[in-house]
C-alpha cells in the first residue's frame, strides 16, 4: 500500500498515525517515550505524526488548576501536539481553545466520543452525539475563536516539530479536529441510523479539518469488536472533503494497516494499544512504507524504556507521581515481556509486576528491573486486561 502523511488543514504531519488522548495515561512522559520509539533506528525514523494530551477540561485550564495544567504540560520535544477539550458550552470551549493555542497546541481537538459517565453526565464527550446541533455549534464557535488568534510563520516553525506548514507566508490559525463514536445507541447503528456520517459532514461545513471515528457506539464503551464498516460509512459520507481517522482495537502494526485498507480512512489513531507497545507507531509506518515491520524490541530495550519512562515522570512531575503511575502502568509494559519456555508455554512476569507495585522508590524499581534482566522475577499467571481504545 502507498503510505501518505496526513494533512490537517495547513499542517502536513510526518505520518498518518496519531497517539490518542488516553485518559489517565497520556502525560508528557508517555508522549516523550512514544516519540523516542518513533525515532528508533530499527524503523524508518518516523512513527507518530501527532501526539495528543490527556483530555482537558477548559474550565480547569481557564482557572489554572494544578491537575489541568499538569495534563496540558508540553515542551520543545513534544511537537507537534494536539490538545483535546471536552465540554458542552460553546463559549467556554472556545475560550479553552484559545488557551490551548496560547500554550503550545499545534492542533485543537473536541472530544465527542468519551463514553465515561463522569463526562457524559455533564453533557460532554459522546453525549454530544445525542444533540448534533449543540455539537456543531461548539465546533463552529471554536473555529471562529481560533481564527481570531492565528500564529505567525515563525511561531508555527517552533511548534510543528517534524510536521510541515503548507500555508504560504503570513499567518495561519490552529486547525480544529473532532473525535467521535459511531453513535450513542447500538440499536441505532444496527438499524443503519448512526449519526456519525451526518455529523462528520456538518462539522466539515463549519471548518473542522478532520474527524476521528472510534468504531464503537457509546453503549458498547470498550467491549465488543470495532465496527470497521461504521468507519467506512463516515469515509464515504464526507467524500474526501476532510480526512477521516480510524480508531479502535489497534494493538499491532498490522491492525493499523488493515483499518486503512478496509475502511479507506486516511489515518489511524492508536490508544490503549500504545500503552503496552509504544513502538507501534514506528512499526506501523515502517510496515506501510517498506512492507515489513521492524524486528520486535529486545527485552533489554523494553526494560530500558521502562527506566526512561520512570525517570521522565520524576523529571516532569515528582517522585511520588512517578511511583503511583509506574505501579499501575507496569502491567501494560509487562504484556510485551512475556516469553515462551522450551515447551511453548507462556512464562509470565507476575513476580516483576508485584515487585514494582511494592516498591517504595525509583531506585528500588530499577533494582527489580536489574533482577529481571538477570533472569529473576519471572513466572506466574498472566493477567489479561481490557484493551479497548
Concise synopsis of the structure shown:
The protein is an alpha/beta fold. The chain has helices spanning 28-38, 58-63, 66-72, 90-102, 117-120, 132-147, 153-159, 186-190, 196-205, 228-238, 253-263, 273-276, 280-290, 299-316, 319-334, 350-357, 362-373, and strands spanning 7-8, 11-12, 17-19, 50-52, 81-85, 107-112, 151-152, 164-165, 171-172, 176-181, 210-214, 244-247, 267-270, 339-340, 346-347. Helix 1 runs antiparallel to helix 14 (299-316) and helix 4 (90-102) runs parallel beside helix 6.
3D shape: globular
Count of discrete structural domains: 2
| End-to-end C-alpha gap | 25 Å
Average pLDDT score: 93
Structural class: alpha/beta
Largest sheet: 8 strands, parallel, barrel
For the largest sheet, list the strands in their spatial order.
3-4-5-6-10-11-12-13
CATH H-tier superfamily of the largest domain: Aldolase class I
Residue share in helices? Answer: 40-55%
Radius of gyration: 21 Å
Total strands: the figure is: 15
Low-confidence stretches: 382-389
Q: What is the C-level CATH assignment of the largest domain? A: Alpha Beta
CATH architecture assignment name of the largest domain: Alpha-Beta Barrel
- The helix tally amounts to 17
Q: What fold name stands as the CATH topology of the largest domain? A: TIM Barrel
The portion of residues forming beta strands comes to 5-15%
